[in-house]
């Protein structure tokens, strides 16, 4: 992990690691984006991605939750559902965050890059994403990662906020992370800034997709100067951290932070519930016209 991080660390103050060379998608409505929003101006700036795993709880990267706490000093932070921020279907404010106690993200190491967010209300008609609930071990290598996020489409671009997807074969495995990389093809799609916290889906029983990992960082491979294009991705393993996620969601339910319960399937865990990113990626863009008609939300500041 130290070797990778020496080249791909996302220090606070930098943009987080969208799907490079990927395809736009309207699938998986439980996967949304995180944005710093100004509801009075009907605008927001996306900075990370996240997945609904309980009726009123999301999972994302811990470095995204860290950034969200900074943005919350001046803006509301929202979980937005839809194909893009400009065509958003639902917006729900994030009330609180729990970051894994072993979280580390610096130039020397990355560990436990996962956090749970609790929403102010329950998104309408969106089922939570099933989460991997068994340890896969070496059988990870028989799988592909389907990456889903709202990030930029290349190094140093400013086009975050559109949901995209891409597939990468599993390349390596360590205690906290599963790595996706296609060594032979430099044009293979990859994650990039703004995809942090997004989903690394894998195929579960019956062919349905489940959350196998949470996108954490990218690293260069074909070209040492570009981590997104021709590089690989690291995702926090849900077969390692899924139990902790379930505990936080359950605790939120029992303390009244979140809503009712859902069983996410036989291969996934039951959840009870009713790329460092310190500044938004790109400038503010308008929300979909439907948003403010659906919500009676107030802005704390600005």
What structural category arises from helix and sheet content?
A: mainly beta
Would you count the extended β strands for me?
18
Helix content: 10-25%
CATH topological fold name of the largest domain: Thrombin, subunit H
Q: What is the string of helix and strand elements? A: HEEEEHEEEEEEEEEEEHEEEH
User: What is the number of helical segments per DSSP (H or I, 4+ residues)?
Assistant: 4
- Low-pLDDT parts are 1-22, 259-302
Average pLDDT reading: 77
The gyration radius over C-alpha positions equals 17 Å
How many domains? 2
> What is the C-level CATH assignment of the largest domain?
Mainly Beta
Mass-distribution shape: globular
Q: What is the terminal-to-terminal distance?
A: 40 Å
- CATH architecture label name of the largest domain: Beta Barrel
Brief rundown of the structure:
The chain is mainly beta. It folds into two domains: 29-128 and 241-294, Thrombin, subunit H (Beta Barrel); 137-238, Trypsin-like serine proteases (Thrombin, subunit H, Beta Barrel), CATH 2.40.10.
What would you say this structure looks like, in words?
It contains 4 helices and 18 strands. The chain has 302 residues and is mainly beta. It folds into 2 domains: 29-128 and 241-294, Thrombin, subunit H; 137-238, Thrombin, subunit H (Beta Barrel), CATH 2.40.10. It has a 6-stranded antiparallel β-barrel. A 6-stranded antiparallel beta barrel has the order 2-3-4-9-6-5. The N and C termini lie far apart (40 Å).
């Amino acid at each position: 992990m130290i070797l990778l991080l020496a080249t791909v660390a996302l220090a606070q103050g930098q943009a987080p690691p969208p799907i490079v060379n990927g395809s736009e998608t309207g699938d998986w409505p439980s996967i949304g984006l995180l944005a710093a929003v100004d509801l009075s101006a009907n605008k927001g700036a996306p900075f990370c991605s996240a997945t609904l795993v309980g009726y009123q709880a999301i999972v994302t990267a811990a470095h995204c939750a860290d950034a969200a706490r900074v943005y919350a000093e001046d803006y509301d932070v929202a979980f937005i559902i839809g194909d893009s921020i400009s065509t958003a279907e639902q917006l729900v404010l994030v009330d609180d965050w729990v970051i894994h106690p072993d979280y580390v993200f610096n130039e020397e190491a990355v560990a436990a890059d996962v956090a749970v967010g609790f929403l102010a209300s329950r998104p309408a008609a969106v089922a939570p994403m099933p989460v991997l609930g068994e340890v896969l071990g070496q059988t990870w290598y028989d799988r592909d990662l389907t990456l889903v996020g709202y990030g930029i489409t290349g190094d140093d671009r400013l086009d975050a906020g559109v949901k995209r997807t891409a597939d990468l074969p599993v390349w390596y495995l360590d205690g906290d992370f599963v790595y996706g990389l296609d060594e032979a093809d430099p044009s293979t799609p990859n994650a990039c800034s703004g995809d942090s916290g997004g989903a690394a889906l894998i195929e579960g029983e019956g062919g349905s997709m489940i959350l196998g990992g949470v996108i954490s960082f990218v690293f260069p491979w074909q070209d040492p100067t570009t981590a997104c294009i021709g590089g690989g991705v690291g995702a926090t393993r849900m077969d390692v951290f899924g139990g902790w996620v379930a505990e936080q969601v359950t605790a939120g339910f029992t303390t009244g932070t979140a809503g009712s319960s859902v069983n996410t399937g036989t291969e996934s865990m039951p959840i009870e519930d009713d790329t460092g990113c310190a500044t938004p990626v790109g400038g503010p863009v308008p929300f979909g016209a439907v948003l403010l008609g659906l919500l009676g939300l107030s802005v704390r500041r600005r």
